[in-house]
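Researcher: I'm comparing several assemblies side by side, and this is the next one on my list. It has 312 residues spread over four chains. Same procedure as the others: predict the full complex and return the structure.
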Amino acid sequence: MKTEDDLLALDNQLCFALYAANRAITARYRPLLAELNLTYPQYLVMLVLWEANQDGKTVRVSDLGKRLRLDSGTLTPLLKRLADRKLVTRLRDTVDERVVTVAPTEKGIAMRRQAREIPGRLLCGTGIGEERIVALREELRSVLSLLEAQGEPSGR
Amino acid sequence: MKTEDDLLALDNQLCFALYAANRAITARYRPLLAELNLTYPQYLVMLVLWEANQDGKTVRVSDLGKRLRLDSGTLTPLLKRLADRKLVTRLRDTVDERVVTVAPTEKGIAMRRQAREIPGRLLCGTGIGEERIVALREELRSVLSLLEAQGEPSGR
DNA sequence: GTAAATTGTATTGTGTACAATATAATGGAG
DNA sequence: CTCCATTATATTGTACACAATACAATTTAC
């Protein structure tokens, strides 16, 4: 009885630790991203676009979805808000009209310069060492791949 | 240049690993919690209420907020939905009318029995060992406390 | 004892998440 | 060539998150 009860204790749940840590980190990002007028998911989208832009690759909405594990119901309005602010362009492919290609504008690309300071500023002062961050990140990536490998036929 | 660029690479960001892993775990919970007709945050609220109920303690909205790191804007509508389904009661304190005490109903308490199987069913088949889960959970808790200790004057 | 600050919850508005559904375009199978 | 499954995105609806604000009750300062 005691054992099963313990399993339901909030503090014993990995998921809650993940849930709380995720929101705590996002909360740390918020004031930094506010300087760029970006939300956290918008920032992630920009990261993907900046990377692709440097590699000379184009990015479709579905590519963003696969990379960030988000569906169109999340991405479409988010991208429209970024497009309204002239940070990205959304162009429907003329060959295959089902496809919408997303690219950063000059303004969007320029924002990358300011974004560069963010990772450095984020964790400084928290007393979390570099190697600890790397270890945790890799463990999370490993767990993520295990979670995604099992169960459902494929990622969304 | 290369170094700073790497810092902005999506795969090098702890925050994204956390963000993706959190949503992957929540997605794993979803079908299990659907059997109870609970969302994941609703489940967390019930966990807190079940714990307090066993300890004979009362829980105020602000207690839930502190424990789960959620504010009233999230909790109030969530608790109203649980109350609509007769899983919890929301009673305004007659002495201090600012206080609302939340408690599970008989129906809410009965649900605990079904919830017990969930932690066990969740990760079975993923190939993630028990000790690995514990280690990751403790590391996340440690990081969380460091994140919460610094910066802002206090937690929300 | 009363004004001011604090506390506890609620409300409003914006922005994700995601299931379910819709819609349009493409690529075969026949 | 045409029906049909598939693909890519968009739309709708529900439910968080959280900032900002509101407001009533309580506590503190004086």
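Model: For your comparison table: Residues 39-42, 70-71, 73-74, 77-78, 81, 96-99, 156 of chain B lie near DNA strand D (CB under 10 Å from a C1').
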